[in-house]
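Q: Fold this one first, please.
A: Sequence and structure below.
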Amino acid sequence: MLGSGFEAEDAVQETLVKAWRSLDRYDPGRASLRSWLFGIATNVCLDMLRGPQRRARAMDLAPAAAPGTGLGAPLPEERWVLPVPDGRVLPADPAEQAVARETVRLAFVAALQRLPPRQRAVLILRDVLRWRAAEVSVLLGVSVAAVNSALQRARAVLPAPPDGSSGEADGEVDEELLGRYVDAFERYDVEALVALLHEDATMSMPPYTWWLRGRESVRAVMQAAGAPCGGSRLVPAGRANGAAAFGQYQEGRPFALLLVETSGGLVTGTTTYLGDRLFPLFALPMSSAPPLRTSG
């Protein structure tokens, strides 16, 4: 709903506080505890979404940059769709994770932000969480017809969530590909790195709207940049929004959170969130990178 792990945590806290304060008014004869809590959470999110601006990715804000184009001015944090660890949002059942992972990918979350808040809530409840129209009707306090109408309008703007077939089979991580990517990145081997990219791969760097599309554009920028990321370390940080996440350290200090999306044995996109703001959310050390790996 909110497009930000930080705001989602705030919403959870607000939901629990409101639930605690109104617990004496909860009537189990009218709704299950689950539905009651979801209703509070939805209203908290709707209140938080009253601002005029929506969160987005760089691809939603500007056309792809040409190699040699400047980064431009950074945008404030509240303009960006921010990542969240998969463990905070995905179901525990592995059988459900492959499909659920598609509904938290950055592209889908960013597309959700195009919808009015109430349509966004209906689509998430119906198409992502698989609630029945009657359940959503009770939760939102509207008619079933109003729920179906909102869902129809939302689907006209936004396709149904992917079925899980676009990424790795059964949601498995391509560890061999990621290992080669990390090795090439840390050695700043441009040719090896570019060879792992899909020909239409994207690269973006929030908080800048600057982004690239295409293997050749990435090669041109990396070759002309003078190895600004040379000597970096990438520390695994699990999964975020269905992608592999890494903490990037330069000279031992936190530099960025890197998300690497893969499909069909190639890297299809990278998103580099500059700065250390996201490191605590992913349990990454703030003082320095862990010791270098040793071969044995």
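Q: Good. Now the second chain.
A: Here it is, same layout.
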Amino acid sequence: MLSFIRRLVVLLLLISNLPASATTYELPDNPGDSLVGDQMASKLYTTAKYEDTLVDIARNYDVGQIEILLLNPGVDRWLPGEGTRVRLSNLRLLPDTPRKGLTLNLPEYRMYYFPRHAEGEKGIVKTFPHSIGRVDWRTPLGRTTIVRKTENPVWIPPASIRAEHTANGDILPEIIPAGPDNPLGLFAMYLGVRGYLIHGTNKPYGVGMRVSHGCIRMYPEDIEELFPEIEIGTPVYIVNQPVKVGWHQDTLYIEVHPTLAETEAEDEHGTIPKQTEKKYLARLKMALKLIQHANNHQMPVLDGEALKDALQMHNGIPVAIYKRPAMTQTDPASLSIP
């Protein structure tokens, strides 16, 4: 019943084009499974209006800018055109991290929040798009915690950021007061890594891109929803997982995103230029290692074409690449190395 209600909410949003809040999924019944979302609506679309841009649509459906461009490679970012079908994502593989607190998967530009739930109660995960640090201001990786929360934060720009702005002819004041024009937005959560925050923004069109000085920026409506749910001490896992592999029942899926190192070399639609062929092969090597690990350290007979397409497109759409035979999960005939 709950799944039906969530599908209905998604469909109503598609009809009304109202701004969405966090995308919420039920956790898999099998703790070893990783695919979340609605199998009955694995391909989800909305229709652009005359005045829409892809950036508008991304925010309406809680999607980041790079994500919606990868999902719609043939659609113009600024003028998609009235009546154009715009694809949205409704299936995801959970990152390979503990399912508690917050996980930020940087190549995905997406956060996963696992609220606490009582024993025997169905767990959920909420996801939000976010921005990450630019190449020259990288967001740090690793495990940390939320150490402080502030509503209506005041921003004191570090000397390094003020110097950068000054070099570009933009003089920043020493203190920027709280309010809608503050770059931190109206809510801020401070990480245990000094100088790094999860916060709102006064420039929401940049959410889902590499635009910050290392902090994590969220849509204003998203952090407003998340802020009261997060407790001091909540664990935060910041990871770099451009390739994710996981099960849904007896089917193995792969989900591929542009790697952080390649993002600047690729075009806005994620196409792999010929000069990055070596990086594609490195991505393939990474995928095969994850696949083998997921399948009890045995290499299954894969759908090679599906795997190749997923690695080349790297558009974040989960793709089925192997199905265990129905007779038994441990049938030796189901395992072989090509």
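Q: Anything worth noting on the second one?
A: Residues 277-294 form the longest helix (18 residues).
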